[in-house]
Design a protein that fits this description.
alpha/beta; Rossmann fold; 2 domains; 491 residues
Length: 491
C-alpha cells in the first residue's frame, strides 16, 4: 500500500508538540510493515535542517492556484531519520513559512489553507496517486475538501482520506475569503451546515469540520477521547458533527517510539536498566540528584514534565509540588509556561524554593534532561484537565516512574488504578487515577502512591515493573491504522 501523510509537523525536523512525534512514529511503523510512506510538510525557515539528510530539488516549478492567480513554489525532498519527506517552499510576499515560528500568526488559517492546496497540487502534477492520504489536525482539514470538490475531477478519483484529530480545541476558523483563495467559489454551497459552516458561527467556515465531513474515516488519538469528543464537552462544539458521522469515527491510541524512549538503549541516561535488572534505576536517581543539587536522601522523587498551562492542569501541578514536599518527598519540574502570568507564577515559586534541597524547578524545555528525569523519578504526575492521548504517562511507565493521572482522554486508556480498577487484574495495574479537578482528588491518588513507596516498597517495585512491561509501542496502533486504510481503500 502507498500512503502519503500530510501534516504541519514531523519530529524531529519540525516539532511543536506530540503531533510531530505521531507523524514520524506512525510513518516508521507503517514502513516496517512493508508499505510505502511519504510525508508532505511545509518548509519552515526555523525547522531543524540538521535532521534532514540528502536534501535536493524534487519539483522546481510548482505553480499553486491561489487568489485567482498562482504562487510559484519549490518542492525539496530529503530523508528525516529514514523517512522520505517533501518540503513545500512558496515564493511569495506572504512569506507563509518564513516567520521564525511554526504557529501563532494572525493569518495561520491562510498559511495552512495554502499548504493544503499546495500539497494537493504537488500530488496532482507529480503523478503521485497514493492509496490513502492521511492528514492531521485543523491545519490539513481542507485536504479532503479539496480532493472531493476539485482534484477528484482531475485524475485523483481513487484516493481515500484518513483524518486524525489530535486536539479538538484548535479547529481553524476562517471567513469566506479562504474559499475564494482556494478556488472553492460557490460560497453558499460551502456555507451549508452539513458542509463547512461552523456549528456556532454562521459567518465562518471550520477547517476541522470540513475534514470530518469530507474524509472517508476520522479518528482521534485514544478510544476514551473519542467518547469524550462525541458525548462530552471535549469536542469543543463538534459533537453534533461527530454524531452525524459516527459510522466513520473512532479512537486509536497513539504509540511511543521505544527506540528513543527506552531505558535499555537510551543514550541520554548514564545507566541503562530493564524490568528484570532495575539497579540502573537507582543509579540514575542518584545522578539526577547530583545534576539538580538535590539532597541524597531516602525519599521518593515525584516529577512533572510538560507544558505549564490550563490544559495540563497547572493549578494541580502547583499543588502537587507542595503536597509532595509535605509528604517527605522530593519534587522535580521540567516545563515551560504558555502564558506570561503562569510563567511569572512559577518563576516566583522557583525563586522561593531555590534553596530547598528537595525541590528543583526547571522552567523551559530540555530534551536531554527530560530523559534523566524519567529515569530518576519514582512517580510522575499528569493532572490534565484535557488530554486527547498523552505521551508522558506512557514514557513514565516505560522508565519505571509510576504515573498518577487524572481519568480523562488517553490517560484512562493507559493507566489502571492500583487499588480501584475493576477492569484489569492486579497484574495489569500500573498507576493511580483520580477524577475530579480539585486538590483533594489529586491528594487521594498522589498520597496513595507516596504511601505505597514508604510502607510497602515491595508492592511499589512490583507496580513499577508492571508499568515497564506495558506495551505502548506503535505495534498495535500501526495494526489498527492499517485496518482503517484497508477498509477505506475498498469502500
Amino acid at each position: 500500500m502507498y500512503i502519503i501523510q500530510i501534516a504541519s509537523e514531523c519530529a524531529p525536523v519540525i516539532k511543536a508538540g506530540g503531533l510531530g512525534d505521531v507523524v514520524y512514529g506512525l510513518s516508521r511503523e507503517i514502513e516496517t510493515r512493508g508499505h510505502a510512506v511519504e510525508i508532505i510538510l511545509p518548509m519552515y525557515d526555523c525547522m531543524r535542517y540538521d535532521h534532514v539528510w540528502g536534501m535536493h530539488d524534487a519539483y522546481k516549478d510548482l505553480w499553486v492556484p491561489w487568489q485567482g492567480g498562482a504562487i510559484h513554489c519549490s518542492v525539496f525532498c530529503g530523508w528525516v531519520h529514514g523517512r522520505q519527506c517533501f518540503f513545500i517552499q512558496p515564493h511569495s510576499g506572504d512569506n507563509f513559512f518564513n516567520r521564525g515560528y511554526y504557529y501563532g500568526a494572525l493569518d495561520d488559517h491562510m498559511r495552512f489553507a495554502f499548504f493544503s492546496k499546495a500539497a494537493m497540487e504537488f500530488m496532482l502534477v507529480s503523478g503521485k496517486r497514493p492509496d490513502v492520504i492521511h492528514c492531521h489536525d485543523w491545519q490539513t482539514g481542507l485536504v479532503p475538501v479539496l480532493l472531493a470538490e476539485i482534484y477528484r475531477w482531475h485524475g485523483m478519483g481513487n484516493q481515500r482520506v484518513c483524518y486524525t484529530i489530535h486536539n479538538f480545541k484548535h479547529q481553524g476558523i476562517a471567513g469566506a475569503d479562504v474559499l475564494w483563495c482556494l478556488g472553492l467559489n460557490n460560497e453558499s454551497y460551502y456555507f451549508q451546515y452539513d458542509r463547512l459552516r461552523d456549528n456556532f458561527n454562521p459567518f465562518a467556515i471550520n477547517f476541522m469540520k470540513g475534514g470530518i465531513v469530507y474524509s472517508n474515516y476520522v479518528n482521534t488519538v485514544s478510544p476514551h477521547h473519542a467518547w469524550e469528543a462525541r458525548y462530552g464537552d471535549f469536542g469543543y462544539g463538534l459533537g453534533h458533527t461527530l454524531e452525524i458521522h459516527n459510522s466513520k469515527f473512532g479512537g486509536i491510541l497513539n504509540g511511543i517510539d521505544y527506540d528513543v524512549w527506552n531505558p535499555q538503549v537510551d543514550r541520554y541516561i548514564p545507566y541503562s536498566y530493564t524490568p528484570i535488572h532495575l539497579e540502573g534505576k537507582a543509579e540514575n536517581k542518584k545522578a539526577l540528584r547530583e545534576r539538580l543539587l538535590l539532597k541524597d536522601d531516602n525519599k521518593p522523587i515525584v516529577c512533572y514534565i510538560g507544558r505549564l498551562d490550563d490544559q495540563k492542569g497547572v493549578h494541580l501541578v502547583h499543588h502537587a509540588m507542595y503536597y509532595a514536599l509535605g509528604k517527605h518527598s522530593q519534587f522535580v519540574l521540567l516545563g515551560s509556561a504558555t502564558e506570561p502570568s503562569i510563567n511569572t507564577w512559577f518563576s516566583h515559586e522557583k525563586q522561593f524554593l531555590n534553596n530547598n534541597p528537595d525541590c528543583h524547578l526547571e522552567l523551559g524545555f530540555n530534551e536531554e534532561l527530560s530523559h534523566l528525569i524519567y529515569a530518576g523519578a519514582d512517580i510522575i504526575v499528569v493532572p490534565s484537565n484535557y488530554e486527547p492521548c498523552g505521551l508522558t504517562q506512557m514514557i513514565g511507565l516505560k522508565y519505571g516512574a509510576v504515573p498518577v493521572v487524572r481519568g480523562v482522554g488517553g490517560l484512562i486508556n493507559t493507566v489502571f488504578d492500583y487499588d480501584y480498577d475493576q477492569y484489569h487484574s492486579p497484574e495489569e495495574r500500573n498507576g493511580f487515577v483520580f477524577f475530579q479537578t480539585d486538590q483533594a482528588a489529586l491528594e487521594s491518588a498522589l498520597g496513595r502512591a507516596i504511601d505505597l513507596w514508604y510502607h510497602q516498597p515491595d508492592q511499589f517495585e512490583q507496580l513499577r515493573v508492571q508499568g515497564m512491561e506495558s506495551d505502548y509501542s506503535w505495534n498495535l496502533p500501526g495494526e489498527q491504522y492499517m485496518k482503517v486504510y484497508d477498509f477505506i481503500r475498498h469502500k
